[in-house]
Amino acid sequence: EDEDSIFKMRAKLFRFDTQGVEWKERGTGDVKLLKHKENGKIRLLMRREKTLKVCANHYITSDMVLSPNVGSDRSWVWNVAADLVEDEAERQLLAIRFGNAENATKFKEAFEEARETNKSLASGANPAQEESEDEESEDEDDKEDAEASKDADESKEEEKKD
Predict the structure, then answer these.
(1) CB distance 30 to 50 below 8 Å
(2) Could you give the maximum distance between any two Cα atoms of the chain, in Å?
(3) What is the pLDDT of the chain when averaged over all its residues?
(4) What span, in angstroms and rounded, lies between the C-alpha atoms of 5 and 103?
(5) Edge-to-edge strand order for the sheet containing 67-68?
(6) CB 57 within 8 A of CB 85
(7) Which of 55, 125, 63 is nearest to 90 (CA)?
(8) Whose CA is closest to 97, among 68, 131, 138, 122?
(9) pLDDT digit string (tens) for 15-52?
(10) Least CB-packed of 28, 91, 107, 108 within 10 Å?
(11) Which residues contact 1 (CB under 8 A, 6 or more apart)?
(12) Phi and psi for 134 in degrees, rounded to 5?
């Protein structure tokens, strides 16, 4: 696999049916946040428990905001521009409900962290790359300091000779 699971929890997923003006259950199973090993992007994937059929599959984008579901402290609602279920990208309003408020909070924290990670990747900032660039610039600073100190030592020795 090209992805690591960074979050996994059992939940029930719903989608809003605009024609019937009601919430329809999509399935119950493990919701996962998967981080791609090469590009670092994080997506949400959820499969139904028994059939393992995909009921949610989309990248978490910077415009996705989790809102509390009215009347429940254990569920969240968000808009998805392109949810890839059954090989079709569809705009959806999704809701997810957890067993308790604590699990719902853990999901929100992981979701928001994933959103920030993907946002920084989209803006061209790669956290791992930034760290290595910082280390490189520190190495260059150390070299410059060593050269300056060497130059100073040489000039002191020349002064002694004079």
Answers:
(1) no
(2) 96
(3) 82
(4) 17
(5) 54-59, 42-47, 22-36, 3-17, 88-97, 75-85, 67-68
(6) yes
(7) 55
(8) 68
(9) 999 899 999 999 999 999 999 999 999 999 999 999 99
(10) 91
(11) none
(12) -60, -45
Q: Amino acid letter at 115?
A: R
Task: Please say whether the beta carbons of 98 and 107 come within 8 A.
Answer: yes
- pTM attached to this predicted model: 0.73
Report DSSP letters for the chain, one per residue: --EEEEEEEEEEEEEEETTTTEEEEEEEEEEEEEEETTT--EEEEEE-TTT--EEEEEE--TT---EEPTT-SSEEEEEEEEEEETTEEEEEEEEEE-SSHHHHHHHHHHHHHHHHHHHHHHTT--HHHHHHHHHHHHHHHHHHHHHHHHHHHHHHHHHHH-
Q: Strand 88-97 and strand 3-17: pairing?
A: antiparallel
Nearest 5°: phi and psi at 79? Answer: -95, 140
Give the chain's length: 162
Amino acid identity, residue 139?
D
Q: What are the structure tokens assigned to 34, written together? A: 């998967």
24 neighbors 15 (Cβ within 8 angstroms)? yes
